[in-house]
């Protein structure tokens, strides 16, 4: 397991055959984000479309995966259908440990299966099977069948797509073990384009550990830190939904398509309210003792009298914002029902909720009608949104198929671009101010997790674009190191540089441990160069007018500061392209 | 006659609290067997019919008499007083009969056929974040002194205070965060 190279399985889905590849680069790319970028450079082509059969779909873990608490995430690298540029999405569940125990640092899927298929991988197993009977099934139904027909119960990750992925939606995610997702930027559509309904990874290998007591001692120390100190409390108590009330109080919660940043009724969907009324239990990603996954329930009558069905639905701040406050829905059970409807389709709940928020405002302003939406969309009317998720996931008509490629595209056709809440992709649930808006709009993943821009907004910084962008660049570099290990970003306060060095060293990655600053900077630059080579121009990223009209707790958005931030961040991002040119010229 | 002796037995009485983190399995593999694994461990956590239905722990229920002992053709598995088994890996011929005999799937065979089962040492307990597990004390029925003496003469530690197990490989345990039992 502790090896100074990467062990990668490259599978050609056209033939079902795989090739184990040993790849150099541990000392420069670590794993995770670094390894995914390295593999995309090797197997991908930014000049070809995202759905070209040869484009790789990459799943990569890191040197610490499974060996320490919260080292429990997998990085997915792919060319996004959302913008046809290189992208990453991250997920946990069992995927990371399943890959570790399948004895793989990464899995690369290339080619297109001749028919709908599912792939099973283990340390001594590789098989592409017919999945014609699974094609068209919703995520949960497909999951139940895959559990029945696949080996490795309990020690496997089951990754699958729903109808959204099959129809090529840029909002299609990959569901991981029911409650986690490679959610954003359309990884599900890449799987669908490969006619791959599912990937089952069975972790069935074991590895010898160093004989010294240093490793178990260090593990014990970290385990103690994350379970017996308050530093991680917020994640396993209320979980991320604790943010709902906090942001609402700060006037930073996007409400009704960002027409407002505060709603007294949002108290109905606070983390506290969810915990009191709708929380069923907690779950964890494999290898993480926190249990930050909050699973709620919906209970609905299906036959009079007194016959009910129930379903379990995971919730977090982001989906609650996207289909709750953003759609004016302030009842926890209604929010869970809409999340459930999106999950079944295999949609990115965040993108889908924000897209329907735009469609609701576009309906209200007469830009679109029920001829497009097929049903009335009104803020607060949950039943309509549940149905609309089905229309969006399956692409019921031209309108929904266009909307599924991104809200801005629909706005270009129907109007309403000014109030499309898109920052590189549909916005995340933070209306904290200028720095966050620019950080998501220009960030590598267009994710609230790229950097702590939302936190920067909430601190008392003067309007200094250079200083703010310095923070974003540096913070991204710290995070890209974590996502190369691969750590959950919730552990960013735990795995400081000193501890990271200790963890790598005790497992025998001493060379990498001495060079982390350079490695992190290198991976950061490489990811950006891939993105820029695909045509990304940060200067051209639109910031729709709604973001300049909104009033946050800090007051009105300052359009000049917003513009200054975009100029400065664009300049810094663009410098990575120049670095490559200089390197090539020098060579 | 000996009386009031106890043995420790691992129990999983609160699995409805389990979050599926596998910390117990990883701890057993790491501390007892010096492996990175969620399989090569005396306790394995599986979903009970999909993640929506919660988790169950596969671990030795400390049978007495233990079917795996009866099935073992070489004496690698012998009966532990108070329930469970003592494992002498040096005697194991990797036939897998122990795993096949276990009615609750508590014996895991790795790819080489080496059996892994719970030795009731309790090392996993402290790593469960929700206290699903506990090391219970079980009082031993009085036995004839000569029987106990015979077990000791065989070089088998069957009723250690830490749960009891065996270790018949060379080399001392590196204690790390506590007493470790080499296989």
Structure description:
Chain A contains 25 helices and 20 strands. Chain A has 587 residues and is of the alpha+beta class. Chain A has 3 domains: 6-202, 4-Layer Sandwich (Aldehyde Ferredoxin Oxidoreductase,  A, domain 1), CATH 3.60.9.10; 235-412, Aldehyde Ferredoxin Oxidoreductase Protein, subunit A, domain 2, CATH 1.10.569; 432-483 and 515-586, no CATH class. Chain A has a 6-stranded mixed β-sheet with strand order 2-1-6-3-4-5. In chain A, strands 8-7-12-9-10-11 form a 6-stranded mixed β-sheet, with helices on both faces. A 3-stranded antiparallel β-sheet of chain A has the order 14-15-16. Chain A is globular. In chain B, the strands form 4 sheets. A two-stranded antiparallel ribbon of chain B has the order 1-9. Residues 145-183 of chain B have low confidence and may be disordered. Chain B is an alpha+beta fold and 183 residues long. Helix content of chain B is 15%, strand content 19%. Chain B has one domain (6-153): Alpha-Beta Plaits (2-Layer Sandwich), CATH 3.30.70. Chain B has helices at residues 23-31, 67-71, 97-101, 145-153, and strands spanning 6-11, 35-36, 43-47, 55-59, 77-79, 85-87, 108-109, 115-116, 134-139. Chain A binds chain B through residues 1, 66-67, 69, 97, 100-101, 123-124, 143-144, 147, 153-155, 177-179, 203-209, 211-213, 215-217, 219-220, 223, 227, 281-291, 293, 312, and chain B through 19-23, 26, 29-31, 34-40, 44-47, 50-52, 54, 110-111, 127, 129-130, 174-177, 180.
């Amino acid at each position: 397991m502790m090896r100074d190279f990467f062990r990668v399985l490259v599978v050609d889905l056209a033939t079902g055959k795989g090739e184990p590849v040993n790849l150099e680069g541990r000392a420069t790319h670590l794993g995770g984000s670094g390894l995914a970028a390295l593999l995309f450079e090797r197997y991908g082509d930014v000049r070809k479309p995202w759905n070209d059969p040869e484009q790789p779909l990459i799943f990569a873990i890191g040197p610490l995966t499974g060996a320490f608490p919260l080292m429990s995430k997998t990085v997915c690298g792919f060319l996004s259908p959302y913008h046809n540029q290189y992208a990453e999405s991250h997920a946990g569940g069992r995927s990371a440990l399943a890959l570790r125990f399948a004895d793989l640092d990464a899995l690369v899927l290339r080619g297109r299966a001749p028919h709908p298929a599912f792939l099973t991988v283990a340390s001594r197993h590789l098989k592409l099977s017919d999945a014609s009977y699974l094609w068209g099934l919703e995520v949960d139904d497909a999951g139940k069948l895959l559990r029945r027909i696949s080996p490795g119960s309990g020690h496997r990750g089951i990754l699958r797509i729903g109808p959204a992925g099959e129809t090529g939606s840029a909002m299609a995610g990959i569901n991981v073990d029911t409650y986690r997702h490679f959610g954003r930027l359309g990884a599900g559509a890449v799987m669908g384009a490969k006619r791959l309904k599912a990937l089952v990874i069975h972790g069935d290998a074991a590895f010898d550990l160093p004989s010294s007591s240093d490793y178990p001692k260090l593990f014990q120390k970290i385990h103690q830190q994350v379970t017996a100190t308050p530093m991680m409390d917020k994640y396993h108590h209320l979980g991320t939904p604790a943010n709902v009330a906090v942001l609402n109080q700060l006037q930073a919660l996007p409400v009704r398509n960002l027409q407002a940043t505060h709603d007294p009724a949002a108290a109905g969907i606070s983390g506290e309210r969810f915990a009191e009324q709708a929380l069923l239990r907690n779950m964890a990603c494999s290898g993480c003792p926190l249990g930050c996954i909050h699973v709620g329930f919906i209970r609905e009558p299906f036959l009079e009298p007194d016959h009910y069905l129930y379903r379990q639905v995971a919730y977090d701040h982001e989906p609650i914002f996207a289909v709750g406050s953003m759609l004016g829905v302030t009842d926890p059970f209604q929010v869970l029902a809409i999340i459930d409807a999106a999950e079944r389709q295999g949609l990115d709940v965040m993108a889908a909720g924000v897209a329907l928020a735009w469609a609701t405002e576009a309906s209200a302003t007469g830009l679109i009608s029920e001829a497009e939406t097929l049903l009335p969309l009104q803020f607060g009317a949950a039943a309509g949104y549940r149905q609309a998720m089905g229309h969006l996931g399956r692409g019921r008509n031209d309108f929904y198929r266009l909307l599924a490629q991104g809200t801005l595209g629909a706005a270009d056709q129907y109007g309403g671009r000014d109030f499309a809440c898109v920052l590189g992709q549909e916005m995340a649930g933070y209306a904290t101010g200028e720095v966050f808006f620019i950080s998501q709009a220009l960030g590598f993943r267009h994710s609230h997790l790229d950097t702590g821009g939302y936190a920067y907004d909430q601190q008392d910084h003067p309007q200094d674009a250079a200083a703010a962008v310095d923070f974003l660049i540096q913070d991204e570099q710290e995070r890209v190191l974590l996502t190369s290990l691969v750590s959950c970003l919730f552990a960013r306060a735990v795995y400081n540089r000193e501890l990271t060095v200790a963890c790598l060293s005790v497992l025998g990655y001493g060379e990498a441990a001495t060079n982390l600053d350079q490695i992190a900077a290198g991976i950061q630059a490489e990811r950006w160069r891939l993105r820029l080579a695909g045509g990304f121009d940060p200067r051209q990223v639109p910031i729709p007018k709604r973001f300049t009209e909104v009033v946050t707790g800090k007051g009105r958005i300052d359009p000049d500061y917003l513009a200054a931030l975009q100029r400065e961040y664009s300049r810094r991002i663009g410098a990575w392209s120049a670095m490559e040119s200089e390197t090539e010229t020098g060579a | 006659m000996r009386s009031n002796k106890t043995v420790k037995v691992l129990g999983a009485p609160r699995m409805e609290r389990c979050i599926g983190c596998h910390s117990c399995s990883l701890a057993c593999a790491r501390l007892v067997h010096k492996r990175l694994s969620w399989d090569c461990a005396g306790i394995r956590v599986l979903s009970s019919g999909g993640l929506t239905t919660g988790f169950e722990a596969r671990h030795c229920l400390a049978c007495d008499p233990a079917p795996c002992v009866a099935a073992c053709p070489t004496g690698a598995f012998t009966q532990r007083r108070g329930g469970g088994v003592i494992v002498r890996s040096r005697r194991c011929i990797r036939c897998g009969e122990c795993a096949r005999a276990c009615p609750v799937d508590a014996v895991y065979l790795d790819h080489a056929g080496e059996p892994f089962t719970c030795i009731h040492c309790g090392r996993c307990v402290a790593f469960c974040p929700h206290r699903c597990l506990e090391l219970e004390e079980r009082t031993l029925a009085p036995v004839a002194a000569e029987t106990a003496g015979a077990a000791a003469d065989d070089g088998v530690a069957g009723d250690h205070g830490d749960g009891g197990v065996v270790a018949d490989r060379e080399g001392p345990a590196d204690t790390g965060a506590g007493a470790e039992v080499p296989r």
